[in-house]
Each structure stands twice: as structure tokens, then as C-alpha cells.
Amino acid sequence: MKILVTGANGRLGMVLRQQLERREDLSPIYLISPRAIPQTEKDVTADISDPGDLKKVVLLAEPDVIIHLAGVSGAACDANLKLSRAVNVTAMQVLCDAAMNAGTSRIVFSSTAAIYGDRHREPVSEAHQVDLSSTYARMKHDAEEILRGASAAGHFSSVALRIFNIYGDRFSDSLVHRLLSSTLSKPSRLQGLDTFVRDYVHAPDVAEAILRSIKVPLHGHLTMNIGSGEPTSNRQLVHLLSNLRTIHYEMDEPRASFSCADIGLAATKLNFSPETLGDVLVGSRR
Predict the structure, then answer these.
(1) Where's the NAD-dependent epimerase/dehydratase domain (predicted)?
(2) Angle formed by the axes of helices 135-152 and 91-102, to 10°?
(3) Which of 35, 59, 85, 202 is the most exposed place for a label (fewest CB within 10 A)?
(4) Is residue 267 part of a domain?
């Protein structure tokens, strides 16, 4: 099966590469930025924000599946709205149109938990009302809707994975990494100990969910949460990480913020059973 991966040189893309290279049944093509230097014969350069460039790659590759990871994330969306929309929204429309002409059977899209917002008290399911309070969330939701509409037209099936807080070796901006890297002179800053709660999911588990989404039986479109399913407060996080090393932090003004996934659907559809943060940290101590 031929797989085209966009954003293949991004943080999650690099983790996904490691797993793809172990799969003899999958033949990957890695789409990377023109500014990047190809590392293997599987790397293809294209500007994801250039519709003509992106369409050309898809039509030449004729992939069975497209895994769409490329995106401008978080606050960076507000820094350059034109570029962010081209990458986060327009590129999805281009991929859908090109996929139809290339005979692609499925698109798997890395979406975000930001679509739900953070004003919750319990894990949210895919049926939960969206809260598009950031530019990033709105753009990702727009891309989901484009994908949903294209698959509803019967051109191909599609999966949108709403991914929660990823951590791992490459994710230096995650709070897990920042706390582990904290020093007495450069403490990490926390927005409360008990009121700030997140769902931390290990990058290899996310990559595994993406690969399982390639072959899950499906007609039309499916949206699934990808997280650990375990709410972790800052207090709990500091406690867990303190088993590895001394953690240094300072407190900002506390705020109520809760974001955690109900992963029941992914467990049923993908047999998704991620490691908890505690289990990952125990493994790292061995």
C-alpha cells in the first residue's frame, strides 16, 4: 500500500517515519518542505501552501492513502494568517480534489483537541460541542469540514484524529519536557496546580493510532479522539516527574483549564490502548 505523508519532517512526522519503516506492507512517500534537505529517496519536496505544487505531488504519487500531518499550529497561526490558512485549510481542499483524481481511497488527518476548548470538567467525547475559541481551532475545524464533505460525496473515506497533548523526545514545547528541563535558574511556569488539567499522550502511541486508521473498516468519515484518556493535573504531573529528577517551577496566576479525551471510540474502532504517562515514565527509569 502506497502512503503519502505530508509534514513528514515535523515532530510527529519523524515519529511516524520510524514506525512506517518497520512496516513491510506499507510503501511511504514523505512530503517535506522545499527548505529541507531530502534524507532518503522516499523524500519529495513541495510547498504545502502552493496548490499547484501540492496537487502535482499527489497526482504523480497516486497514493492509496494520504496521511496529512502538515500544519501551522497554536499561536503561530495568528502571526501569519494568510500562510496559516493556506497550510491549514486550503491545502486540505487541494488534497481532497487531488485524491479524487489520483484514485486515493483514504485520507487520515491529524486534527486537534483545541476544537473542544478547555472549559470542561470531564473527558469529552467526539459528540461534545465544539468551542472554536482560537484561530488554530477554527482552521482545523474548517479543514475537518472540508474532509467530511469530500468523503460524504463518496470519493474516498476519511479519518480525523483529534489529538490531545503530545509529549515525547521531539516535543520540546510540551509541559512534560519543559518541567524535565527546568533548572533552579530557569524554572518552568505553571498556571495552577490543581485547576490546570491535561491529557498527555505519548508520541509513539499517536503514530500507532494513525497507522491503525489506515486500514480500519470504514465508509464515509470518522472523527476520533486520540489521547491517553487520563486527566493529569499539574500537581500530579510534578509528582510523577519528580520520580525522575528534581523539578523546578514557579506559579503564575492559577486558571481553571481542563482538557481530556474520552477515547472509547478509538478503543473500539482501532483497539487503541495507549500507555499512561506514569507507565511511560516508569519505563524510562529502567
Answers:
(1) 3-227
(2) 20
(3) 35
(4) no
50 with 83, same domain? Answer: yes
pTM across the whole model? 0.96
- Identify residue 244 by its one-letter amino acid code: L
Contacts of 257 (CB under 8 A, 6+ apart): 118, 119, 191, 192, 195, 196, 197
DSSP per position, 114-156: GGG-SB-SSPBPTTSPP---SHHHHHHHHHHHHHHHHHHTTS-
Task: Show pLDDT as tens, one digit a residue, over the chain (286 residues).
Answer: 999 999 999 999 999 999 999 999 999 999 999 988 898 999 999 999 999 999 999 999 999 999 999 999 988 999 999 999 999 999 999 999 999 999 999 999 999 999 999 999 999 999 999 999 999 999 999 999 999 999 998 889 999 999 999 999 999 999 999 999 999 999 999 999 999 999 999 999 999 999 999 999 999 999 999 999 999 999 999 999 999 999 999 999 999 999 999 999 999 999 999 999 999 998 765 5
Three-class DSSP category at 17: helix
Looking at the structure, do residues 162 and 173 belong to the same domain, yes or no? no
190 lies in the same domain as 77:
no
- H/E element holding 29? strand 27-32
How deeply is 29 buried, as exposed, middle or buried, from its count of CB atoms within 10 A (0-12, 13-18, 19+)?
buried
Total count of domains within the chain: 2
Q: 269 in a domain, yes or no? A: no
Amino acid at 37: I
Residues 126 and 92 in one domain: yes
The DSSP secondary-structure symbol of 229 reads S
**Per the domain annotation, does 98 fall within a domain?**
yes
